[in-house]
Amino acid sequence: NWTMENFIETEIKRIRKLVGETAEVIGAVSGGVDSTVAAKLMTEAIGDRFHAIYVDNGVMRKNETVTVKKTLDEGLGINLTVVDAGDIFLSKLKGITDPEKKRKIIGNTFIDVFEDVASKIKTKDGSDIEFLLQGTLYPDVIESISFKGPSQTIKTHHNVGGLSENMKLKLIEPLRELFKDEVRHLGEILNIPEDLVWRHPFPGPGIAIRVLGEVTPEQVKIAREADYIFIEEIKKAGLYRQISQAFAALLPVKSVGVMGDQRTYEQVIALRAIETTDFMTADWFVFEAKFLKKVASRIVNEVDGVARVTYDITSKPPATVEWE
Ligand code: XMP
């Protein structure tokens, strides 16, 4: 009978047989549940012959890199390489305001950085890495098939599908028959911390598509701080699991405010929180007024450069989840 415990056992055996006694595997981890579960499963199967690579692209959330290091490396015993590539990404994003261009730049830079790091990884017997691990889920498989239709140019989601062909690696996708809730269950059995197992999805291009207009280190910092406060309050209120995804976006407009007897002229934060089952359609989440009041006042008081906070009350469709 099919249980998650059986799945793990079978999958580990399958991976061992496929990889053999000496070959080695690399894979990107993002700090999200899919890549972490895939990486943990691989580590259970072949130990340090699996090499996880985390690329800090400069547009991750607050404390993300430190947390990933702690959880994956120290906590889960995954053989992890952390690459600080923030400057490279941010310099390539300079002057770019078009959302699709941002996505392409981040996707391509990611591939360049990943390949560069991967080529420097030393295997035990000096041979080349043979396999690439990807945490692809069943819905990703379906989506990538249906997205090949001619009219599907809605958004080119950050996708590293080309990596294996470019690098001549064989692909391993142990989660490709699973749905998200099954992956979360798998994560729990594999002792992945609850915080990570239930984490909201985070787009590949990260905060770059939540800073509307040009992405600069200063703008990223504002968006990042506001986002952190919003999520912190959501967790404190016990609402995190009820909400499918929540974040702060920084708008490229200035608005007049008042602080003490001073007139201010600073930017606007838009908060977004949605409920959905499949992310194809979504409803905005109904917060209590006093919750929104608290978040707005914290953001304006604690984040330099913000004079006003708004809450996005648009469903998908017609609006998308992200602002770009
Ligand atoms: P939209 O904005 O299209 O988002 O309604 C639906 C879901 O997809 C995520 N998203 C992305 N994920 N790369 C990703 O990896 C992207 O470029 C991207 N754009 C949107 C979004 O966060 C939401 O979960």
From TrEMBL:
Q: GO MF annotations for this entry?
A: ATP binding; GMP synthase activity
Chief localisation class: cytoplasm
Q: In which pathway does it act?
A: Purine metabolism; GMP biosynthesis; GMP from XMP (L-Gln route): step 1/1
Which locations, inside or outside the cell, does it occupy? Cytoplasm, Cytosol
Which cellular components does GO assign to this protein? cytosol
Q: Where is the GMPS ATP-PPase domain?
A: 2-199
The answer to whether keyword ATP-binding applies is: yes
| The enzyme's E.C. designation | 6.3.5.2
Task: Describe the subunit structure.
Answer: Homodimer.
- This chain's protein is named GMP synthase [glutamine-hydrolyzing]
Q: Which organism is it from?
A: Pachysolen tannophilus NRRL Y-2460
